[in-house]
Structures are given as structure tokens and as C-alpha cells.
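Before the break, one more example. Copy the sequence into your notebook; we will annotate it together after we see the structure.
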Amino acid sequence: MSRNRPPRRERRGQTLVEFALILPVFLLILMGILDLGRAVYYSSTLSNVARETARDGIVDQTCANLNAMAAQRAVGMANVGVQIEWLDTGTQAFIADCPLVGSELLNDFYGDLIHVTVDYDYNAATPIIGNLVGTIHMQAESKFPVEAHCVDDAVPTNCPAGD
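Here is what the structure looks like once it is written out:
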């Protein structure tokens, strides 16, 4: 019985061509998984930044402190937008926002809600995937009732530390 088999050298060439065709697709899928992991990490980080900044705002309503703490917690993320405002507990109506000015400094926010919103525009690291999905806007927010009144950095004994 004789078999008609192609020479071994031709099969190696075929394998090399198949590998060359599959490799870019495989790398694109791998980079897509890494970009998805980065997006999930940034989303989780945004949620933590919003929650922890709002928790700091429970006892310290100094806008400069809250913005500095939010920027410190946004690890690996540049250009994170932080919006801080205070809402009436019953009606959820706007009372004040950062930066506090004039008569807003005199407001006693005790019992009102601090509402922190954090925004970030995510861009994929892989250029091909970045062109396909574009910029993804991410946002996280958190609300907590204010437990202490503190808007003055000049009197540190009256302002408990936010962290």
C-alpha cells in the first residue's frame, strides 16, 4: 500500500503561514482582554474615590481638602473630574457646591447630604481597540449624610481629620 503524502518541508511552510495569519488576531484578543481589565480597574477606582471622598466630606466640608484627597485616591488616573455639592436631606434640593463662597461658608451642613460625583474619560491602550470603541465616559457618585460642620482650615481643632 502506498500513500501519497506531501513532502514534510511543504507542511512546515503551511504551518508557518497559518501561524502568521492567526498571530495578529490572537494578539488583538489578548490586548482586548487587558484593556477590558484596565477599564474594570478604573471603574472600581472611580467608585472608591467617590465613596471615600464623600466619607471625608461627612466630617470635613473644606473643598481644598476634599479635592486633594480625591486626587490622591485616583491612582494611575489623570484628569479625574470631581464635583462636590450639598443637598437638602428631605427634598434633595441643591444647597451649595465646591468651592464654597460667601454665605455658603456659614452654612451648617449637619444632617444634609454630601453628594460627590467623579468623572473620567477612559481610552484603551491598544490603538486598534481605541479606534473601535473610542473614548468611554465613566462616572461614579456617592451620597452620605453630613455628621459634623467644618469648613474652616484655620481652626484645625474644630475640624476632624477626613482620613
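The helical segments are 8-59, 63-73, 127-133. Residues 25 and 162 are 49 Å apart (CA to CA). Try to locate both features in your own notes.
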